[in-house]
Design a protein that fits this description.
With 395 residues, the protein is α+β, with helices and mostly antiparallel strands. 35% of the residues lie in helices and 23% in strands. It has two domains: 274 residues, Zn peptidases (Aminopeptidase), CATH 3.40.630.10; 109 residues, 2-Layer Sandwich (Alpha-Beta Plaits). Helix 1 packs across helix 9. The protein binds zinc ion (2 copies). The site of one zinc ion (ZN) has 4 residues, from loops. One zinc ion (ZN) binds next to loops.
């Protein structure tokens, strides 16, 4: 890594924070909390912000925190965002800082995101903005939604977390790249449309399928129609993918079930691809009915809308990364693919961008696997990129 001279000071300051960053990340990793239940995590964030002398509000969007460092002069305000929630996964890593909570794990790196944003706050506390200001947004529940179907970003936006912001930036650690590399994607988030399909029939005896409607046979045809149909209906230059994640029905080996419930998700990278795939879904329902079953397709609300990185905001993050990590730090690898990311709701409020920060640990799993881990050498780099990126957008 060859940093530009003006970035060397930031790197040195960030490296001095490295022991704290690791301590924060491990403390959060040991005590992972699911969406809207980030009480300990928010408590740690509040404690550290208080130590840094930064003013903040708690309870924004239930368990979120908003902290501001303002200058005396008017100017642009830049928001930096991290997510704090963990996943319902049982950790299989055998390390000193493994999850102490059975069945809950930071398997997406949000522990690292929270630590890096605290690091950026520490850098700004040492060198505050000279005009405008910087806002630190610690959001709950990126991975899920509450009983009203709203995710953490939606809750925080509704409570004014983005009011007055000129731009918003975020990092996401990636196991696809090693430390020292960054990647980005045209999109912040693919469109995410989750669905439920219910197939119903009278049910009946396994030995007499002719006297009933075999919902299992219908299910097989419907799955075939969906999986074969989407790739044949969508322009191959525009990615879209449909995945069925759960199938539930039946209790006995000799009974044709009267109801089968199937859930899944449709992801797309442009509006035409999304629409074409949705038409395939409608045809699958028609097929199920033609085979004699009652069929009901329900699109869950809300879905993440497709959103793209803002060019100027992304440029600031990439320039910051290049100044700190060297001119060759941007990898060709794509960032997100067809993932969903609720940062999209912050980026609807002001020009926004998300950069992927290399943090691969060889031999460990991808995002959302029980062996996911983060190379902690990425933590000071991430804090420095957030700091420099925000400063570029303020000037
Ligand atoms: Zn995730
Ligand atoms: Zn994530």
């Amino acid at each position: 890594m060859t940093a530009q001279p003006q970035a060397l000071q930031t790197l040195a300051l960030a490296e001095r924070l490295a022991p704290s960053l690791v301590t924060w990340r491990r403390a959060i990793h040991c005590h992972p909390e699911l969406g809207f239940r980030e009480f300990k995590t928010a408590g740690l964030v509040a404690r550290e912000l208080r130590t840094m002398g930064i003013e903040f509000r708690t309870g924004v969007g239930k368990t979120g925190i908003v902290a501001d460092i303002a200058s005396d002069k008017t100017g642009r305000w830049v928001a930096l965002r991290a997510d704090m929630d963990a996943l319902p996964i049982h950790e299989q890593n055998d390390c000193a800082y493994r999850s102490r909570v059975p069945g809950v794990m930071h398997a997406c790196g949000h522990d690292a995101h929270t630590a890096m944003l605290l690091g950026a706050a520490a850098l700004f506390a040492q060198h505050p903005p000279t005009a405008g200001g910087v806002r630190f947004i610690f959001q709950p529940c990126e991975e899920d939604a509450d009983e009203e179907g709203l995710s953490g970003a939606q809750r925080m936006v509704a409570e004014g977390a983005m009011a007055g912001m000129s731009a918003v930036l975020a990092l996401h650690v990636t196991p696809l790249l090693p430390v020292g590399k960054v990647g980005y994607d045209e999109a912040i988030s693919a469109s995410v449309d989750d669905f439920v399909l219910t197939l119903r029939g009278p049910g009946g005896h396994a030995a007499s399928p002719h006297l009933t409607v075999d919902t299992v046979m219908v299910l097989g045809q419907v799955i075939g129609a969906l999986y074969a149909g989407v790739p044949r209906a969508v322009d191959p230059m525009h990615p879209a993918v449909l995945t069925i994640g759960s199938v539930n029905g039946g209790h006995a080996n000799n009974v044709i079930p009267s109801e089968i419930r199937l859930t899944g998700t449709l992801r797309a990278r442009n509006a035409e691809a999304r629409l074409a795939a949705m038409q395939v879904c409608e045809r699958a329902v028609t097929l199920a009915r033609a085979l004699g079953a009652e069929a009901e397709w329900h699109w869950e609300q809300p879905s993440h809308p497709l959103s793209l990185n803002d060019a100027a905001a992304l440029d600031a993050l990439v320039r910051a990364a290049r100044s700190l990590l060297g001119p060759d730090c941007v990898a060709d690898d794509r960032g997100l693919g067809l993932g969903g990311e609720d940062f999209t709701y912050f980026a609807q409020q002001a020009p926004g961008a998300m950069l992927y920060l290399g943090a691969r640990v060889d031999g460990h799993g991808e995002w959302h696997t029980p062996t996911f881990d983060v190379d902690e050498r990425a933590l000071p780099l991430g804090a420095a990129i957030l700091y420099e990126g925000a400063r570029l957008l303020m000037s």
